[in-house]
Amino acid sequence: MPSPAVIQLAKVYARLSFLLLLLLHPTDLHAPRSTLAWSLSFYPQPFLNIQRRSTSGSTLDFPVINVLGFLCYLISNSLLYYSSLIRSQYAYRNPVGLIPTVQLNDVAFAAHSVVLSMITCSMFRKSVWGFEQRRGERVSRGVWGIMCGVLVGVGWIAVLVMTRGGDGGRDPIGWAWIDAVYALGYGKLVITLVKYTPQAWSNYRRKSTVGWHIGQIILDVIGGVLSITQLLIDSSLQDDWSGLTGNPVKFGLGNVSLFFDAIFLIQHYWLYRNVAKVVDDEAANRLLSDYEGSPTR
Question: Whole-model pTM?
Answer without folding.
Answer: 0.77
